Amino acid sequence: MKWARDRYRHNVAADDCAPMASDGRPLRVMVVEDEPGIAEALVAAFRFRGWLADHAGTAAHAAEVVVELYVSYLRKKIDTDGVEPLIHTVRGAGYVLRPPV
User: Fold this and answer.
1) What is the band of 12 on the pLDDT scale with cuts at 50, 70, 90?
2) Mean of all residue pLDDT scores within the chain
3) Total count of domains within the chain
4) Which of 39, 51, 59, 72 would bridge 33 by S-S if both were Cys, CB 3.0 to 4.6 A apart?
5) 75 pLDDT higher than 80
6) d(Cα 77, Cα 36) in Å, to the nearest integer?
7) What residues make up the domain containing 71?
8) Which parts of the sequence belong to the OmpR/PhoB-type domain (predicted)?
9) Calpha distance 37→31 (Å, rounded)
């Protein structure tokens, strides 16, 4: 199985240890597979080797999951306690950036 991320290619083998990001966290992989049995097996194999693995049945669902993940990261970085959050979720539309009043 081959997996490409950023500017390097990594071959996953049985004796591999989990690759780490530059800050020491395990890398995250998104498995996009519409066959549930195959997807579950791939996710289990990645997790067994120490990866953070998620599953999406379609490319559109994968894109939604990735956007939600990065908006969550962004919220953690820019929001402060006691102040109204800057990023608001608009149901059915997406996200909006509103400065506090």
Assistant:
1) low
2) 82
3) 1
4) 39
5) yes
6) 34
7) 2-97
8) 61-97
9) 12
